[in-house]
Amino acid sequence: MSIDQLIATRLQSLRKTQGLSLEQLANNSGVSKAMISKIERQDSSPSASLLGRLAASLGVSLAQLLSEENPQPAPLRPQANQEVWQDPDIGYLRRQVTAHEKNGAPELVEITLPAGARVSYPGWHQQAYKQRLWMVEGTLDIRYGDENYAMATGDALTFGVDLPITFTNPGSQPCRYLLVMSDK
């Protein structure tokens, strides 16, 4: 299954599981009904910010839109089996290192953000979770609510998804970081 098929399937499944119509999800997320429909039909590949708004509105992590839930993951997850998604607008690259598990186990996600790129997410109002970010290489500016953090290689930051957040790569090279997400 392609990543666009997976996103389409997961978005529609999560929307229907919550009993939401296209119009209700559009009103809750600020994403047009037409765009949600295009994503579900695989007529459009969403941006990272748009996926963030949909995930926040559904009260799920981005991983739940970008990967299948795996109730019993294998101990080994080869790189070839890790879902990779690229934002069609800015080239942001997201690798789902570990599978999303229903039991709330921590998730690992590797992000590569191109030089000069910026991605913003709204605050999650339901089922907010914690994240830990570790800078693998490059620099990254993070605005979390009213706080600003300048990150360099080796730095770590713990934060939630309860407030709006913007990730900006101010450097001339791509930056790469690891996110560890957990319910606690």
From TrEMBL:
Pfam families associated with the record: Cupin_2, HTH_3
GO CC field:
cytosol
Identify the residues that the record assigns to the HTH cro/C1-type domain, covering every copy: 11-65
Question: Which keywords does UniProt give here?
Answer: DNA-binding
Gene Ontology MF term list: DNA binding; DNA-binding transcription factor activity
Under the heading Gene3D superfamilies, the entry gives: Jelly Rolls, lambda repressor-like DNA-binding domains
Say which domain of life the source belongs to: Bacteria
| Protein name as annotated | Helix-turn-helix transcriptional regulator
